[in-house]
Structure formats: C-alpha cells, structure tokens
Amino acid sequence: MRIAFTTTGESLEAPLDSRFGRAPRLLVYDQEHESVEVLDNRQNVEAAQGAGIQAAEAVIRSGARVLVTGHCGPKAFRVLAAAGIQVFTTQALTVAAALKAFRSGELKRAESADVEGHWA
Amino acid sequence: MIIGIASGKGGTGKTTVSVNLALSAGSPVQLLDCDVEEPNDHLFIRGAPRLLETVCVPVPEIDPALCDGCGACSRFCAFHAIVGLKATPLVFAELCHGCGGCLRVCPRQAIRETQRPIGVIEEMATGGVTLIQGRLDVGVPNAPPLIRRVKAYLRRDSLSILDSPPGTSCPVVATLRGCDYVLLVTEPTPFGLHDLRVIVELVRELELPLGVVVNRMGIGDDRVHAFCRQERIPVLLEIPEDRRIAEACSRGELVVEALPEYRVIFRELLDRVQRHAVAMVAR
C-alpha cells in the first residue's frame, strides 16, 4: 500500500507539513518496497483558490490509498473521499514519526474535514 | 460619459465622491454601485429599492448515465471546478467561472448548464439620480459576473458614475473596463500613496485617462502630491479633513446637502473631469 504525507522536505526525516493543499511537497511511501517518492506541490503554494482540490488530485494520481497530514479542508476531503482515499490527521513533527504513528494504529481516521474552507 | 471612481485603498471616500458627484450633476445621471460585496451608495440615496433581476451564473451538471469518466472536462477547467475521477467527475460550483468550456470539450454531451443564483440587482431613484446596485449573496466568491450584469444597465445617453470596489483585483478591472475616465480617490498618507501607485499602474494597463481626488487634506504628508506631479497626474480636487463632513456621512447625509458650499465644488469637479477627459481624447 502507498501512503501519502505532506512535507516541506524530501525524506522521511523531513518535517510533516500540517497544511494539506499548500504543502510544498507530497511524500509517497510504498510499504511493500519500502521506497519513497517525492512529488512537487509547489505550484499550489501560491494558488488563489483550488489548492486543496489540486493536491487531492495529485494524491489520487500517486496511487496512494491513505493520506496522512495535519489538516484537511472540505473541498479536498470531498475529492479524497470520492476517490476512496482514507485521511488521517496528526500533529507529528516529522514524516517518519507520522508513519510510525500510523503503523501502530494510533491515528484515527478522519470522518470529515477538520478545518473550514477559505470561503463560507 | 462613464466615470469610474476607484481608489486602491479602502475607506478613502469613493462612495462620498460618487454620490455627491452624482447629486451635483444637475442633469439625469446614473449611479452604478459596483461594490457588490458591500454596496453602500443606497445609504445616501433615499428611496425604496426595486428588484430588477436575480443574477445567475451557469454551472455544469454532469449526467452520470452519459459520462464515461474520460476527464476531458476536468483537464480543460482552469479553475479546478471539475475534478475528474474514475467515476463521474465532482463539480465545485463555487469555483466555476461559467465559461462553458466543459460543455464544449465533453465528447459525449454529458454536461448541461444549470443556473446558480449569485445575487440581485436593485434600482432606486431620487432627484435625477438613478441608483443601480448589485448585491452579491453572502458566501459567493466571484463578484465580476454580477458587476458585468450591473454594467449592462449603462445608458450611453446620460452621465454614468461607477462606484468601484476598493483594491486592484478582478472586481475593480470588471468595473473600470469600458469607462471613459477614472477618478482615483486617495488620502495623503503612506497607505494612501502605496495603494494609489498600484491602482495607477492598473488604470494605465487599461489605457484609461485618470485624475486624482485627495481626500482628508491636512492629515499625513505631501508625498501623494509629489507622486502625482512626478507622474503628471492632475489633482482635480482636494477635500479638507473636516469633521462636519464625517458627521454628515455618519448620519447618511449628502455632503452637498449638509454643507451646501460643496455643491459648487463637486459641480466643478465634474467639469474638470469632463475637460480633462476631452483633452486626453484629443491627444
């Protein structure tokens, strides 16, 4: 299974970015091959709108079935849910810590967005 | 003639200049409140509003029976209002700009347009001034489609004054495009100057003639005037910092009625605008 994380860096040791849509990168961890793929999300950092939607599309394209991030807004959540991707939120500081928490079953699956959209 | 009243910085006196200019014109005049996110010209124009129309924008609706999930619509949409998944795409109506492109690129004609209401246009009339205002529904993020509908009421046979939203983004461009002249209201402060520079750049990009009104003269410094001299922008009026003006405005009174000496001042402003506009066309 492939698991997507939001990050400011390029490795498992890098910080977990608590933002979903505007995180600079997505790190996709492949559990079977224990390999890491880094996807550039920087085009969304300055997006006026639709950042969460585009990041969600990138997660879908990456083949990940699970997303671990800090927060997830309503539009991104709707896209991820429609694609059957499970969302887990965490306050972990690094991708490695978030991965460890996910594997140990500490993280609770999000049933809905946990932050407001940028418009009412 | 169509005069756009804009400012960059908010709270400099666009509405004050717009309504007082309109009321001192002395001939039938249209006042269009294009600040559809918070229209306030109506506070100074007494009269009951009459609903002219509810404005809608087209948004796509996808028929799942016809859609084969090819994703052409979502790839086309520059605003990510349609997200292609393996099944029927998701539509985010609030991001849609209503261009209709998705309908055209869909190879299976699975998309039709439905109408989503975004606001209303109202009219009220008093003393030779017809106010037409747009009012955007709360939570709607896109003002330009409503502003363009408000401007559809422009009558070319009378003087029209367009009260623009503040700032320098799309709603301001939507308001000023097609104006014959742009009057920029600023205040002689560092904030006023900063935002004046940005809006001057925008108006020049639109290739429209412009002049400046400096409001609240007496506060701040002289850098707005220095900038206008350097850029060869005429300062057509200076309105002093005057507590009586603020008090009149706070009561919803027109400056030209509370302080009748201003009627001739605003009348002269209109003459200066018209003369400058003609001079710029001649050049």
Radius of gyration of chain B over all CA atoms, rounded: 22 Å
Secondary structural class of chain B:
alpha/beta
CATH H-tier superfamily of the largest domain in chain B: P-loop containing nucleotide triphosphate hydrolases
Indicate the proportion of strand residues of chain A.
Answer: 15-25%
Inertia-based shape of chain A = globular
Spans of at least 5 consecutive residues with low confidence of chain A = none
Give me a quick take on this structure.
The complex is a heterodimer of chains A (120) and B (283). Chain A is α/β, with parallel strands linked by helices. Chain A has helices spanning 51-62, 74-82, 95-103, and strands spanning 2-7, 25-30, 35-40, 66-69, 86-89.
Describe the secondary structure blueprint for this structure.
The complex is a heterodimer of chains A (120) and B (283).
Chain A: E1 2-7, E2 25-30, E3 35-40, H1 51-62, E4 66-69, H2 74-82, E5 86-89, H3 95-103
Helix pairs in contact in A: 1-2
Chain B: E1 2-6, H1 14-23, E2 29-33, E3 50-62, H2 72-76, E4 82-83, E5 90-91, H3 101-105, E6 111-126, E7 129-136, H4 144-151, E8 159-163, H5 170-176, E9 181-186, H6 190-205, E10 210-217, H7 223-230, E11 235-240, H8 243-250, H9 255-258, H10 261-282
Parallel strand pairs in B: 1-8, 1-9, 2-7, 2-8, 9-10, 10-11
Antiparallel strand pairs in B: 3-6, 4-5, 6-7
Word description of this protein:
The complex is a heterodimer of chains A (about 120) and B (about 280). Chain A is of the alpha/beta class and about 120 residues long. Helices cover about 25% and strands about 20% of the residues of chain A. Chain A has three helices and five strands; from the N terminus they run E-E-E-H-E-H-E-H. Chain A has helices at about 50-60, 75-80, 95-105; strands at about 1-5, 25-30, 35-40, 65-70, 85-90. In chain A, helix 1 runs parallel beside helix 2. The longest helix of chain A is centred in the middle third of the chain and has 12 residues, at about 50-60. The N and C termini of chain A lie far apart (about 35 Å). Chain B has about 280 residues and is α/β, with parallel strands linked by helices. Chain B folds into two domains: about 1-55 and about 120-280, Rossmann fold (3-Layer(aba) Sandwich); about 65-110, 2-Layer Sandwich (Alpha-Beta Plaits). Chain B has ten helices and eleven strands. In chain B, helix 1 packs across helix 10 (about 260-280) and helix 4 (about 145-150) packs parallel to helix 5. Chain B is elongated and about 70 Å long. The two termini of chain B are about 20 Å apart. The mean pLDDT of chain B is about 95. The interface of A and B includes residues 50 and 53 of A.
